[in-house]
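Final report, closing paragraph on structural work. Over the funding period we assembled a curated collection of sequence-structure pairs, and we close with a single example.
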Amino acid sequence: MSEAATADDWRRLVFDETVAGLVLVDQRGVIIGANPCARRMFGYGAAAEVIGLPFARLLPQASPWSGGSGLGLEGVRRDGAHFPVDARFSAIARDGESLILATIVDLCEASAEGAALIAHAEELERLNERLARFAFVASQDLQEPLRKIADFGALMEQAISRGAQEEIVHANSVMRFSALRARALVQDILSFSRIVNDELELAALDLREAIALALAAVSPTIAETSARVEIDLPDVSITADATQFQRLVQNILANAIKYRKPGQPAAIDIRGFCDESSLCLAIADDGIGFEAQYAQKIFEPLKQLHSKVDYPGSGVGLAICKAIADRHGWRLSVEAAPGVGATFFIVLPLREASA
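Its predicted structure, as stored:
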């Protein structure tokens, strides 16, 4: 294949595949070529439908032979609808003939894509900031069990040299507990990172079925603690990542069971309230509750309001819930009072409204 033929193939490929609208105009102002993007932009199908039309049919206000850019122009679609465009006009020569290549951008489509990109960038920035804070706090929390492992490892060596069996057993117990805590922290860091970074697999979910799956995941704990769960949910569908939605509900249920009143089984109510466009999912418990001033802090990574001895854990569960809600664009909040319990609220759009 000759070099000229190869160049023609490349020009044809660029003309057909570029994401901007390209229109080729002859000296009479008649369209002699329009790429697929331009035809879609102006509402035409096959190339034959637009070739032969006057260029003024697409851009009545444009002066392509003046060169440069056409700012603040209006395009006219095939059905007569007007829309804002920007256009750039370039003079080219082909077979001794002077032509104009018009590069046209639909400003409505460009602004929508730009807004989506900005929103995505802002979401990434928020998620990265949260992940950075989480990693910092986690690194601080990891120092405690690691320090204990190092300190009691030295004490165990001394106890072994003296043959002090009780000290050996105690040091081994502390080291094992610290190692398990460090491992749990690392696992929670990985879980939080996956929640923040994994792609959402959005799908239509039946609310009742999704809640049932979350309950099934914590059913051993429910049975072990004799917790009572009551459900009153509307028959609606939502759009969500199934795994993450179930994780969110599962963590809130586990939290309610964990912070039950001493000596009493947890009582949990799961209810849903709908308006025309949204669902408010309320998960209430009758546990030990907490002061209202901590309603935001409990969603921070590794934040625990109660004694780690009485209520062991890493404090990551509710931070994961917050990350899931934020990624979906939902509102997650909590109301609580000491000795009364806590109610978590998740506000999200209904499937019918968002579809």
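The chain has nine helices and twelve strands. The chain has two domains: 3-108, 200-355. We thank the funder for supporting this effort.
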